[in-house]
Specification:
By secondary structure, this protein is an alpha/beta fold.
């Protein structure tokens, strides 16, 4: 048997998933896919994603086979990329497959497909339709099995479940190992703390694991006066500035983190260097959050927060939900982002963000300025400079992806009345 993880429901996570499959979203020190690979480590694993991302991944020499028709030469377990796979879930699936010995569809309590097991004979001649997402699992399989699984269908569900997910995933890493340096005067509370090699926790910092594990990867610097509260993962070579408070979050590698962060997920290479609050939010890669930028994650009425998914306005059912910030976004000093709002990839923001910001846009409506489309060559030049500051070269595959996304997101900008002209601040 082989395993294929497929890119399901990605539209609900825009703009974060314009630049990555849904299974590459963070869960902690792993992604959804990373967690699946950890639990199903004895099996060969491939991935299926959108055509433009598949081309990009192949150019970037992705580790897993991508949209590969040659992979379809065995029985295959297809896993929805939004499933949080646990050891318990794996055992249940394999037990059902072994007991029934036939093709099966596993559904959740809402009747949606979580996993599908197809025998090789059913897969013959269907590779193209499977890769294109046009294959009907239900019609192909003999039986349906109801199964209890955590499937993250919307971004606020990931944030709402983040604490429990982090506890389960980080608990497997083992606590109580301090390989880096903890200076005298730093306060370590609890035993579920891992501090990686070449990491430094300065005097006056507090690391607290009484509510969940703390995993600080290698080469991290935690400056004096900072407070780190678990469950939390901090990626390698990330810098936590003085007097920062971070709680119940997953922060990627090579980030610069300051101010107050609570219940957030941040992909790698992003900066929130200065004071300001970021809560119940998801931030993409290569984002620069300007000084004083703050988001709201709670309405004054304490009512549930509504947001937009495509053309729909959806009540999240959550009292606390912040914002989604796509890759390459730059917020100016003093940007204020209201609850439930989204900022599209590569956009630049100024002032108050009271509505969703389309991708590749300079947005300053609260200053009385009409939104203006960024020039794609300027976006690429800016990104090249940012990446060079981290010692990374922007290659042709990155530039081609940026240009493709610029065209893909054109309808967003048209809908919001974004103009093609030079921006003018009065």
């Amino acid at each position: 048997m082989k395993i294929i993880v497929y890119d399901a429901g990605y539209e609900n996570f825009y703009p974060i998933t314009y630049t990555r499959p849904v299974f590459d979203l963070k869960l902690g020190n792993v992604t959804f896919l990373g967690q699946i690979k950890r639990e199903f480590s004895e099996f060969e694993i491939a991935i299926i994603t959108r055509e433009y991302l598949a081309k990009y991944m192949k150019e970037k020499n992705r580790e897993e086979p991508v949209n590969d028709e040659k992979f379809f030469d065995d029985d295959i377990l297809f896993i929805d990329g939004r499933v949080v796979v646990t050891g318990r879930l794996k055992r249940r699936i394999l037990e059902e497959i072994e007991r029934k010995k036939e093709s099966l569809v596993f559904i959740d309590h809402e009747g949606e497909i979580v996993v599908a097991y197809l025998r090789e004979r059913l897969l013959r001649d269907h590779a193209k339709s499977l890769i294109a997402g046009k294959f009907d699992f239900r019609r192909a399989c003999e039986k349906t099995v109801k199964i209890k699984a955590l499937v993250i269908k919307y971004p606020w569900e990931l944030i709402a479940n983040l604490e429990q997910i982090l506890k389960e995933i980080l608990a497997k890493e083992g606590g109580g190992r301090i390989l880096g340096e903890v200076e005298p005067g730093a306060k370590i509370v609890g035993s579920m703390i891992y501090i990686g090699e070449n990491s430094l926790v300065e005097s006056g910092a507090r690391i607290i694991s009484d509510k969940g594990p703390v995993y600080i990867d290698s080469g991290v610097i935690v400056e004096n006066g900072s407070r780190i509260e678990g469950p939390i993962y901090i990626g390698s070579k990330t810098f936590i500035l003085s007097n920062t408070r971070v709680a119940v979050s997953a922060i990627g590698s090579v980030c610069r983190i300051g101010g107050e962060i609570e219940r957030c997920l941040i992909q790698g290479y992003s900066n929130k260097y200065h004071l300001g609050f970021l809560g119940h939010s998801y931030v993409g890669e290569w984002v620069n959050i300007g000084a004083g930028t703050t988001n709201s994650d709670l309405k004054n009425t304490y009512g549930t927060i509504r947001t937009t998914i495509g053309e729909r306005i959806i009540d999240t059912g959550e009292i606390k939900y912040g914002c989604l910030i796509g890759d390459f976004v730059k917020t100016s000093i003093g940007t204020y982002i209201y609850a439930g709002k989204k900022i599209g990839i590569a956009s630049h923001t100024h002032g108050y963000i009271l509505e969703d910001v389309p991708s590749f846009t300079i947005w300053a409506k609260s200053f009385g300025v009409e939104p203006v489309e960024l020039e794609i060559d300027s976006v690429i030049r800016t990104q090249e400079r940012m990446m060079m500051r981290r010692g990374i070269k922007m290659v042709n595959a990155d530039k081609k992806l940026m240009k493709y996304l610029f065209e893909l997101t054109l309808p967003e900008r048209k809908k919001k009345g974004v103009k093609r002209r030079k921006i003018k601040f009065s």
